[in-house]
Write a structure and sequence with these properties.
Strand order of the largest sheet: 2-1-3
Oligomer: single chain
Strand content: 15-25%
Distance between the termini: 28 Å
Number of strands: 3
Shape: globular
Order of helices and strands: HEEHE
């Protein structure tokens, strides 16, 4: 299982919301919402997965999406 679906299952288990998608250059973009302790736990657990390699992470606070429910995997990003 890759990063996107690992993130999906972890976020569902932790009651986090947001999305994950592949970028055209091969990187993965992830946006999640939740309390700070759950977000920290998510990141630590994600990096500890034996089949996941996180070489670099840019972490930034972004405005909350009001009413967001659940977590989704966006299968691809158009290069157009």
């Amino acid at each position: 299982m890759g990063l996107r679906y690992t993130a999906l299952y972890m976020c569902r288990d932790m009651k986090l919301t947001g999305w994950v998608k592949n970028l055209p250059d091969g990187r993965v973009e992830l946006e999640i919402q939740g309390d700070v302790s759950s977000l920290r736990r998510f990141y630590i657990e994600l990096k500890s997965q034996p089949h996941i390699h996180v070489a670099h992470a840019d972490i930034a606070e972004v405005p909350l999406v009001s009413g967001e429910r659940g977590f989704s995997v966006n299968p691809f990003v158009s290069t157009l």
